[in-house]
Design a protein that fits this description.
Elements lengths: L9 H9 L7 H11 L4 E4 L6 H14 L8 E4 L3 H18 L3 E4 L5 H13 L3 E4 L1 H9 L10 E4 L2 H6 L3 H9 L6 E6 L4 H10 L4 E4 L9 E7 L2 H12 L7 E4 L3 H13 L4 E4 L5 H12 L5 E4 L14 E4 L6 H8 L9 E7 L4 H11 L17 E2 L5 E4 L8 E3 L10 E2 L1
Parallel strand pairs: 1-6, 1-7, 2-4, 2-5, 3-4, 5-6, 8-13, 9-11, 9-12, 10-11, 12-13
Antiparallel strand pairs: 14-17, 15-16
Helix pairs in contact: 1-4, 2-3, 3-4, 6-8, 13-14
The structure holds adenosine monophosphate.
C-alpha cells in the first residue's frame, strides 16, 4: 500500500513527500481510511508506530473539505512535550496545505501564556492541548468550540494515569454532541474502555498486535539505586552459566564507561554504539556470534536487528524508555524456543516506566531482593509523583505521573 491509495488532497501529498514518508505504517494503513470515512475510532498503538500521522493526516484532509474550519479539531495530549510534538507535525504538513494549528499547554512562563492567548484569539483550524490549560481557557470563555468536528485523544491511558479523567469529561461537555471522536491509547485497561463507551459513538476498533515476549524468557527485576547498579551487575556476571550476555544502558556515555569498567575487571567485553564505524561493528558482531566475546554492552542500537542465537542473558542496566523497547531488548534472548533470562535494574525514577512495561506485557515481573552485601534498594512505588525525568530523545520528558491513588502496597526489595 502507498499513500497514493488514500486519495488525499494533492497538496497534502506534497506535505507527506516533504516529510520523507514513502509507505504508510500498519497503524496508518488501518486508521486513515476509518477516520476519512468519519467513523469514531478506538486504536491501540504505541509511540513509534506512526500513530500521530495516522490521525493528523486524515484530519487535515477532512478539514480541507470542512464547512467550519475555525477550531475544527481538538487534539488532547497528556504532556506539553507531546502537545508540542503533535503541533510541530501538523505544522510540517500544514506548510503545504494551509491548515493552521496552535498548541495550548500548562507550565512555561507568563510569556508562553500570553502567546497562547494571542494565538487563541487569532484562531486556528486545530488546537492541540493538555487538558488542564484548556479547561481554564474554556471556563474563562476564551475559546468557543461550538463548531468542532473532530476530537482526538492521544495517549489516553497516560492521560487517565495522570488524573485527567474529570478534566477530559468537562472539556467534552463544551463540545457539540455531533462530532467525530478518535481515541489512541498504548494500552487498553478497563478504565479506557469505560471512558470510550461514554464518549465514542459506535466506534471501529484497531489493535496493532504487539510482539509479546517469548514464553522461554525468564523475566526478573531488581530495585537498585544507580550507585548500586555496577556492583549488582558484577554479582550477576560472576555466574558462569551466563556465557553470552547483552547489556543495555541508556546513553552512549554510559555504554562506553561500563564497557571500560568491565574490561578493566578482566571480562571479554565490547561497547557497541553509534560512534563505532560499521566495519568495527561487523567485527564485534562476528566475535560475539563466535563466542570470542562474552559480553556486549550497547544502547538501543543493539535492540533491533541483532540476530544472534544462544544469547542467554539480557540485562537492562537502565529501564528502557518505551515499553516496546523492552520487548525488543529482551527478545534478543530465548530465540527459536531456547531458554533465556532477562533482568532489569529499576532505580527510583524508572518505576513508573517499568509499571507501563508490565501493563504492556500484561504481567508483573518478579522483583528479586538485592544481594545482602549491597544494602537495600528503593521502595517499589510506581504511582508516586517524582520530579520530571528526561529520556533518550533529549528532553522529551514524561512527568512521573501518579495514578491518583494513595501509594499502597509499599514493598522493599
Ligand atoms: P509516532 O509514533 O507518531 O511518534 O511517530 C514516530 C516517528 O515515525 C515520527 O518521527 C514520524 O515522523 C515517523 N513516521 C510516521 N509515519 C511515517 C511513515 N509513514 N514513514 C516514515 N516515517 C514515519
Amino acid at each position: 500500500m502507498t499513500f497514493e491509495d488514500f486519495n488525499f488532497d494533492e497538496q497534502l501529498m506534497d506535505g507527506i513527500r516533504s516529510m520523507g514518508y514513502e509507505n504508510p505504517t500498519p497503524i496508518q494503513e488501518q486508521a486513515i481510511p476509518v477516520i476519512m470515512q468519519k467513523h469514531d475510532l478506538i486504536a491501540c498503538a504505541q509511540t513509534g508506530t506512526g500513530k500521530t500521522a495516522a490521525y493528523v493526516l486524515p484530519v487535515i484532509n477532512n478539514i480541507l473539505h470542512a464547512k467550519h474550519r475555525h477550531f475544527n479539531t481538538l487534539i488532547l495530549a497528556p504532556t506539553r512535550e507531546l502537545a508540542l510534538q503533535i503541533d510541530q507535525q501538523i505544522e510540517g504538513f500544514g506548510y503545504f496545505v494551509n491548515v493552521s494549528s496552535i498548541a495550548v499547554y500548562g507550565g512555561g512562563d507568563g510569556m508562553a501564556w500570553e502567546q497562547q492567548h494571542k494565538a487563541i484569539h487569532a484562531g486556528a483550524d486545530i488546537i492541540t492541548a493538555t487538558p488542564g490549560r484548556l479547561i481554564s481557557m474554556l471556563t474563562m470563555k476564551e475559546v468557543n468550540l461550538n463548531h468542532l468536528e473532530h476530537l482526538v485523544l492521544d495517549e489516553a491511558d497516560r492521560m487517565l494515569d495522570m488524573g485527567f479523567y474529570d478534566d477530559i469529561m468537562r472539556i467534552i461537555s463544551y463540545l457539540p454532541k455531533k462530532r467525530q471522536t478518535v481515541l489512541f491509547s498504548a494500552t487498553m485497561p478497563p478504565k479506557i474502555r469505560d471512558m470510550a463507551r461514554k464518549i465514542l459513538h459506535d466506534p471501529k476498533e484497531i489493535t496493532l498486535s504487539i510482539a509479546k515476549p517469548a514464553e522461554g524468557i525468564t523475566q526478573q527485576a531488581y530495585l537498585a539505586y544507580d550507585a548500586q547498579k555496577e556492583k549488582l551487575l558484577l554479582d550477576i556476571l560472576s555466574n558462569e552459566e551466563y556465557q553470552s550476555i547483552l547489556i543495555f544502558a541508556s546513553t552512549k556515555e554510559k555504554v562506553k564507561k561500563l564497557g571500560a569498567d568491565l574490561r578493566q575487571k578482566g571480562y571479554a567485553v565490547k561497547a557497541f554504539h553509534s560512534d563505532i564505524e560499521q566495519i568495527e561493528r561487523e567485527q564485534i558482531m562476528r566475535d560475539f556470534k563466535g563466542r570470542r566475546l562474552r559480553i556486549l554492552v550497547g544502547t538501543d542500537v543493539l535492540s533491533r536487528g541483532i540476530d544472534v542465537e544462544g544469547i542467554n542473558l539480557v540485562i537492562n542496566y537502565d529501564a528502557p524508555p518505551d515499553p516496546e523497547d523492552y520487548v525488543h531488548r529482551i527478545g534478543r534472548t530465548a530465540r527459536a524456543d531456547a531458554k533465556g533470562t532477562a533482568i532489569t535494574f529499576i532505580n527510583e525514577r524508572d518505576q513508573e516506566k517499568f509499571s507501563r512495561i508490565e501493563q504492556l506485557i500484561g504481567k508483573e515481573v518478579p522483583k528479586i531482593p538485592l544481594p545482602e552485601k549491597l544494602g537495600s534498594g528503593p521502595l517499589y512505588e510506581p504511582g508516586k509523583k517524582r520530579p520530571q525525568s528526561f529520556n533518550r530523545h533529549g528532553g522529551k520528558g514524561r512527568p512521573g505521573g501518579g495514578n491518583g491513588k494513595p501509594a499502597g502496597n509499599r514493598r522493599r526489595f
